[in-house]
Design goal:
The structure is a homotetramer of 498-residue chains. By secondary structure, chain A is an alpha/beta fold. The first copy, chain A, is built from 16 helices and 23 strands. In chain A, helix 1 crosses helix 8 and helix 3 packs across helix 4. At the A-B interface, strand 6, strand 7, helix 9, strand 20 and helix 16 of A face strand 6, strand 7, helix 9, strand 20 and helix 16 of B. Chains A, B, C, D: Keywords: NAD, Oxidoreductase.
Chain lengths: 498, 498, 498, 498
């Protein structure tokens, strides 16, 4: 079995004293191993990043951006290979992996605008003949810790922006599906990123804690669950670093009585079950305003679920692949068991699904609960599986109160035709990313990604304009020049006998 | 004796169960008492801010800005009274207080631009007929904790920007000189700030810890010493808040051989001894490049110090007033004693100064050390007094290495005529605010204030553009509208028999 | 009779060789005379502006802005006097004059943000150790030519932004109602504007042509009718100047079948008849989608018109005052005569109105035409009077085709509840300022004002961010410093024998 | 002989009723012919652009940008072919052509940022529950007219930005060297630009006048000589279009006594003689401050000229190729004859140069005049050839007065080490693009290019941020929604018997 190692200072490094299996979730087989970095290995990566920093921060932004132009091209040329690696280790359908990659490429495209994005503000005459301007200078060594569900996209949210801003980077991706992440980092090298500018260390808590405690690391970006996000934020900040830590979600979709139900249900199917619901922007809760709406939505979802195809992600004919690991499968299945116990109506039960030839895969069919209430654990917890709950309320305000009372505030959306409903909702809802007839309102790469409440710790969001500010330090220069000479013409005037 | 109380929900509140003396540092007399808020009082202020939030965040930004327009006018009309309060409790010379106030007013002027500053980014067609835009929404209750040395200016760095962004605010100013801060808050009420939008609580660690732990407080701005800044940052972040914490400084001025020495020395006198050196942007260290430069600078400083007038701040003929408290006087004097012990040359000794009629005041004359070395404690520590150290080095690079090796990175400056020296210095020095022939490079109000290294914890600087981002939460909306009807003309077309 | 003169270099100047009467339109009496400047007088104003330029462009932007802070205060303190002058010469109701003044003050508030607005873009390392930045420098002498309908607001669209950008200005206001404009300019002097920075010349085509041809005038802003706008644009550009020339309008309001009719009709009444329709953003055309909508709108408008009060503007109980001049009254009345001839249904005829005690005033009652068609002259021409035409169409697309076929493209609006209708309309309509349930979508002062098609000639709109770009010239500096010395340590290192 | 035709609606079109020879300036041979479009052909191109507009303006900006990403790649892959075409028809040395291409590619890179650049400003609550935002919408058909000296770069200044902003484009390049321009347009098609979005018509005044008069053309960008720029600006504006017209130049370099002369002279050689001085940013005038400086500069320039290699551009060992045409050669040579007559000292005479094997080529050696005065015609006129004039003055102020008195204000630079000299010069000089120790301060692609005085007609500069504003029309939307229903819960609440 191959072992997935680290990329440090431009070279692949084994450090395989400790390893862990990597599984194909469609078959349940261990297909590779991944090295788990020791503290020393992580420190070596940090040292490589530190050493690469001075030359890289002095490289003109346009030249840093040109590495991204070439990198985009390499990502497009290697798209099939990248997606195959994702599907092999994560399980999602190839088409879905391609969507993930495309979103990642969009962040690389944005990074190509570095010279524009790094412009500082210049003020003439802040006082008489005194000028002042701001520069946004690189921080030094920055780090990212990323989750299993988007092994390609989430790292690409972070390090392309970090490095075009002049920083160097140490990435610790998820150890469950490490191969595409590492391969992409190698493509960046091939595109011209100097050794040490981007380093990848695979690992577990040892690696994380080394990044959190090493004083050379200036900033940490994290995406994962809320308890870990809180730990990262508190620990990183206590160590004096800047930290942005994105956590969990429980995104609600409101369906209003005037919604276009065909559009809405079609959108909800993808948002709830795409990638098995293993997305921080997935929609696991539908809030139907009015019982008529609720009945109609549930009926249509049930009909759609009957048509949904579940099977290995390598077959693009499937709508949904397996869950990522055996443990996660058991956890999600446990929530379905619980929901029934809690009194929700299990309208569609995906627990018994069989995928011929893939009996050991971690497949769970789409599940649909109706009459879910806010007191139930299946409502409160982030399940991260193909389980959709329908809650029924009497008014838009009641739907919004429900959302605002939940601990998470990542994404949400409303289905309506009414301008006022949309404006009132988007203005007042305490959620960071809001869709109007858009089920997964993931901001495009030239905006920024961030939830509210316990979905994000820190003040700056991920990628987009906020990433520029996160990955740079403001320096303000105030300048005047003593005027002896020039205006008087004394110093610079030559002696003349005319 | 009067007791300075709190401003909560638009009303003055006593809560004088615990009090502390406020002294006139020019006479050593206790002239007032200040109430020290209990946790309950602070919670009442937070509750008032929480209650005032919904209406205030819905108030159009231009109307919030207009309160600032009126407030600016009231500050100007009440300038003499404000400055008298500052001098009475802090000790600085009236003219210097006026300078502080003017800087504070500049922040109010910037807050008047709220409608411009709060503009979000709008993107048409992020996909086919899909639009997306960002809003920068208010956070809710925000808080500020401010130091004794600028009782007027530092609070005005914080709350005007916080409130024009739609937040409400709880301010805990220094308990050593609380009166001008409170009076200014009352002027803001008079200018039209609704009750509860700005609250002031005087107090000590009890108040600070209540602000740090109350879950209703969304964000904390702090200015003070580095140990407290670290505590605030670690504790506030562990409680899930966004925090910006500005700490200590030890700002170096480099004097190059080609500098205009008359200008430089004149500038250094003000920067080193103005306000007794009790400024986070003061210059307590001069780095002379070359012994000739060093000799010339020391000789001129010595001559200038002989002319410097020390006395009560109420007399604008004085250059320097007393230190803020007896304890601080003793601490600063102790450093002068130590410097001599450590082997520095005490060129000018201000310890024996007498101010007739003010024998009990906390007056210390200007002190000048030459041949200070980086190993000395008087070099490493922030003394915050009228003590200037001259260090001598051989080159610009050596001077820069010295600065970069110091734990603080707040401000610095260079005196030179050479474009290349200035560019190399400003580009590479690891300090946040950099002057070229400008001794106190405090950014103007439309830029932002922030040091590097252990002078600032957090990613966003104080006031200016960064304050807008710090005091707002990004919300990104992605919107499409189902197209049934309009384009087809079915729904909106009336039945017609033509 | 008083003669309204000029303001040149800070002093009132008579130059009354040629004069013209100024009338009170509510009484028909000539109450003042206005001087008509000779070419020499205009040249004197230009010369004063030219002389004042160097010192003013070197004045720090924050100091220029502070003149605007004081000016805003003076405008507020003198509001009643200003409005009385407007009503006395223009005729509009005092409350309406107050609305005009308030809009003007908002432009002054925006001008207070000059230091923020004038920030240039700064790029470090456009090449190795090469920096580049943009400055937005003042042009020099700029000029404005403004119409009778907003004697206070339109000048305030122009010169406050021009002067805070560092320019000096020559204003030629309308000779029909010159007094408020001149008085406001005097307040600006009182606020601290140095002599010569703002000059006012009253006059006619002689003055206009002098401004157009004098090579010292760098830029011209114009608001008026389209034929004159075209003349100004062509002539000014042929003379090498930058020009923005805002012309006529014929703004359509679409009423959709799903509109909230009470709101819509209430909004339309003000938009059609406010200030006698003498506004470039007035709504003289309603496009009703569907006959049911048309019938309902006409019925409600008719009922509202029966309640509308017409009388002298000095009485705030009136809804509408007189037209501005006898000539204009005759012209508007002629259009009403013509409309009937062209076959439109004159639902409400305001021609016979009597205002007791003001029989010689230029009063015309509100007129309402139904079944107007695009072929009619009352549809095609800008009438600029209290005449509202209703056109009926079958679909939103037909309504939009109508608007797009008209030569003007200043403003428009739609009344609907439907998000898609609003989005499709605002995206595709060929009009510069678009309202959704907002009848007069005049952009706020921190956005910019500009029509499309033959309503605006030039590329930059009036006031707001575009005004900054219009009133400044870009200068881009690219800078590197020869590195001999500093890095090598040769030049700056002192000779040493250690 | 091949005939270079037009590119209309994605297809090559001959229209060779009128043709003109294209010469190889290194040999003097006619190698091709170029078609000169009739008015009908130009109208066909405009019609194609008009037809392509609706679909293209609705294409999401990111998709338009992606065409530019692919186009950049194709330009890089075809660089050698492009440069060969440039050298074959223009004469410049291949390396110099590569420099031109690289500058062009940088504009394409900037165009890749379209989604970022097109963001509008969004304001919440401009009034209670009223929002307003700006969109920057495409104009429609835009046009460009470009000069012979940069057949690749100047067109790439224009149309990539125009088309990513959503416009379609008609380009009329120089008829003297049309091939590279046309080939590049074909590469854009290959990159995915839909037919009709970019059209190229070769031609002469017939084509220009058709573009100027056709009402479908919304905007015109021009680069060429000042008399033609004035004609384009006056005529285009009189026809109601927006126009930016860049004209001639006479760029001065100031050499201060403290300049690093080795650097300065090396920089001046390239700036004066590179591309035979046929650049609008070339330096044809050196202003030496002081006779010592003047003597030293002239001596070094003379020595460098002795080493300069002149010959065919196909040999990268040459420093300078031939002039572009026989006519231009004669004109430039005539200026050298005149200079001697006018009394300037001809230090180096390049008139007699022989290039073996290329006797019929248009080669002129580098010429150097000393003691040139402002009264001489060789000083006043734009020669556009390898002729450098040295003027001597006594002070920086005198040098600046000279520059400010010249009719052109395109570029200028200063060589100095002194911060104050640089700041005083860059602040006050009346020139749009200013270098400090940078001889050709052409702004990078993410800034904008524009001269002052008679070097630019219009208010917006070429390429960079200004191009976004030039190629878009501002639309401002103000929106409120009637609130019936949602907040009250009436409309959206379902009937319930609970």
């Amino acid at each position: 079995m191959n072992t997935v190692g680290h990329l440090i200072n431009g070279a692949l490094v084994a450090d395989a004293a400790r390893v862990q299996n990597v599984y194909n979730p469609a078959t349940g087989e261990a297909t590779k191993q991944v090295a788990l970095a020791s503290a020393e290995t992580v420190q070596a990566a940090i040292a490589a990043a530190q050493a690469a920093f001075p030359a890289w921060r002095d490289t003109p932004p346009i030249k840093r951006a040109r590495v991204m132009f070439r990198f985009k091209q390499l990502l497009e040329e290697n798209a099939d290979k990248i997606c195959a690696l994702i599907t092999d280790e994560h399980g999602k359908v190839l088409n879905d992996a391609m969507g993930e990659l495309q979103r990642g490429i969009e962040n690389v495209e944005y990074a190509c605008c570095a010279p524009e994005l790094l412009k500082g503000e210049h003020s003439k005459n802040v006082g008489p003949a005194i000028d002042s301007w701001s520069e946004f200078q690189a921080l030094g060594v920055t780090a990212g810790i990323t989750p299993f569900n988007f092994p390609c996209m989430v790292p690409l949210w972070m390090w392309p922006m970090a490095v075009v801003c002049g920083n160097t980077f140490v990435l610790k991706p998820s150890e469950r599906d490490p191969s595409s992440t590492l391969f992409i980092a190698q493509l960046a090298q091939e595109a011209g990123l100097p050794p040490g500018v981007l380093n990848v260390v695979n690992g577990d808590k040892v690696a994380v804690d080394t990044l959190l405690s090493d004083p050379r690391v200036q900033a940490i970006s994290f995406v994962g669950s809320t308890p870990i996000a809180e730990y990262i934020y508190a620990t990183g900040c206590a160590n004096g670093k800047r930290v942005q830590a994105l956590g969990g979600a429980k995104n609600h979709a409101i369906v209003m009585p005037d919604a276009d139900l065909d559009n809405a249900v079609s959108a909800l199917m993808g948002a709830a079950y795409g990638s098995c619901g293993e997305r921080c922007m997935a929609i696991p809760v539908v809030v139907a305003v009015g019982d008529e709406t609720g009945d109609a939505v549930v009926a249509r979802l049930k009909a759609e679920l009957a048509k949904m195809k579940v099977g290995p992600g390598t077959d693009n004919g499937n709508d949904m692949g397996p869950l990522v690991t055996r443990e996660h499968f058991n956890k999600v299945k446990g929530y379905v068991d619980l929901g029934a116990d809690e009194g929700a109506s299990l309208v569609v039960d995906g627990r018994g699904i069989k995928v011929p030839g893939h009996e050991a895969g971690y497949f769970l069919g789409g599940c649909l609960f109706d009459h879910v209430t806010p007191q139930m654990k299946i409502y409160r917890d982030e399940i991260f599986g193909p389980v959709l709950s329908v809650v029924r309320v009497e008014s838009l305000q009641a739907a919004m109160d429900l959302i605002d009372a939940h601990e998470y505030g990542n994404g949400t959306c409303i289905f309506t035709r009414d301008g006022e409903a949309a404006r009132y909702f988007t203005d007042n809802i305490k959620v960071g990313m809001v869709g109007v007839n858009v089920p997964l309102p993931v901001p495009v790469a030239y905006h920024s990604f961030g939830g509210w409440k316990r979905s994000l710790f820190g003040d700056l969001s991920a990628y987009g304009p906020d990433a520029v500010r996160f990955y740079t330090r403001r320096k303000t220069i105030t300048q005047r020049w003593p005027s002896a000479g020039v205006r008087e013409g004394a110093v610079f005037t030559f002696p003349s006998n005319r």
